[in-house]
Amino acid sequence: MINMMMPPIPTDLPVTLQTLQGLVSLLADPAATGQRLAEMQTATAALQQAVDEQKTQLAAFAVAEADHRRSIDEATAEAADKISANQAAFDAECARRKADLDNREAQLTQLQASVSACADAAAADRADLEHRLALIKSATE
Predict the structure, then answer these.
(1) Are 26 and 33 in contact (CB under 8 A)?
(2) Which of 8, 48, 79, 125 has the fewest CB atoms within 10 Å, i.e. the most exposed one?
(3) pLDDT in tens, 112-124
């Protein structure tokens, strides 16, 4: 059985027909064809030059980016080294001060023991002197 219905018309038919008409008119006029080819070659050369310039700029950008990353990495390493050195100096100073405080604490404990011993001796001497005074008073009465 034969399909009597026509196939649907493509939606881009006007554009296709216009392109076909342009090609036929170019083939009919060799001078216009040569001029059009020259224009297309000029446009192609300009586009290729733009692509080459873009590639050059991208390469320069990649170099600049690598330099920037390297300088950032160097600055980060320097900052880390400086922080590490400062932390080590701080830790050493803290340890020195703690040792100094520990020494002072030991000296204070020793002085407190000495003062306590002296106070006990003074109390014993006072008790002895008061006892002697009481004996002297009782003997003179």
Answers:
(1) yes
(2) 8
(3) 999 999 999 999 9
User: In whole angstroms, what is the distance from residue 131 CA to residue 110 CA?
Assistant: 31
Query: DSSP label at 5?
Result: S
Residue 64 to residue 58: CA distance in whole angstroms: 10
Residue with tokens 């586009």, as numbered in its chain: 47
- Alpha carbon distance 63, 60 (integer Å): 5
Number of folded domains that form the chain: 1
Contacts of 28 (CB under 8 A, 6+ apart): none
**Residue 71 parent element (H or E):** helix 30-140
Name the 3-class secondary structure at 130. helix
Rounded to two decimals, the pTM is 0.47
For residue 65, being part of any structural domain is answered with yes
Which residues neighbour 36 within 8 Å (Cβ) at sequence distance 6 or greater?
Answer: 26
**Structural domain includes residue 78:** yes
Flag whether pLDDT at 106 surpasses 60.
yes
Domain residues for 68?
50-140
Residue 118 lies in a domain: yes
Q: Is residue 36 part of a domain?
A: no
